[in-house]
Design goal:
mainly alpha; transport; SNAP receptor activity; Syntaxin/epimorphin_CS; rod-shaped; Syntaxin_N
């Protein structure tokens, strides 16, 4: 009975932990979708940027071109980093879903195991009862056999019993003979 209680408690605790895990997973997914990295507008290259470059100054134009190229590379790097992070997040989400599925399978296994333990407990109790009943019946049969052996010995060894049996047998035989003679007489008289 206490094993059944322990199994039920374990199953209940497991379900509670599973629910907490699922809640944390949902919260993490919500936070990941809510977070969008901020890319300042100044980093993005504009189509108007070339018209603003002072063509009269080579040095200024060269610096402006380097600045634009630098910003473009930063944006590309940020895009690559974002894509990489998104791939990692997706991979982790798949891993979390797989773990969640495995936890659900383990939960089902524990539930099935609890049912089996419960059923086996009833069968073991039945077997124990049958063993106890068989033992009691065996003890009773042994006592009956001992009594029967005593009665048989006492009836075989009783003095005069052999003579009584013999005289009874002789009387029965005489009676049969007399009946047979009477029958013969009746038949002959007819």
């Amino acid at each position: 009975a206490s094993k059944k209680i322990i199994d039920a408690k374990l199953a209940k605790d497991f379900e509670a932990v599973l629910k907490d895990f699922q809640k944390a997973q949902r919260l993490a997914a919500e936070r990941e979708t809510a977070y969008t990295p901020f890319v300042p507008q100044a980093v993005l290259p504009s189509s108007n940027g070339t018209s603003e470059i002072d063509l009269g100054s080579n040095k200024g134009a060269e610096q402006q071109a380097l600045l634009v190229e630098s910003r473009r590379q930063e944006v590309v790097l940020l895009d690559n980093e974002i894509a990489f992070n998104e791939a990692i997040i997706e991979e982790r989400e798949l891993g979390i879903q797989e773990i969640q599925q495995k936890i659900g399978e383990v939960n089902e296994i524990f539930k099935d195991l609890a049912v089996l333990v419960h059923e086996q407990g009833a069968l073991i109790d039945d077997i124990g009862t049958h063993i106890e009943n068989s033992q009691a019946a065996t003890v009773q049969a042994k006592s009956h056999l001992v009594k029967a052996a005593k009665i048989q010995r006492s009836s075989l060894l009783a003095p005069g019993d052999i003579r009584n049996r013999a005289s009874h047998r002789d009387r029965s035989t005489c009676s049969l003979i007399k009946k047979s003679r009477f029958k013969d007489l009746v038949i002959s008289s007819l």
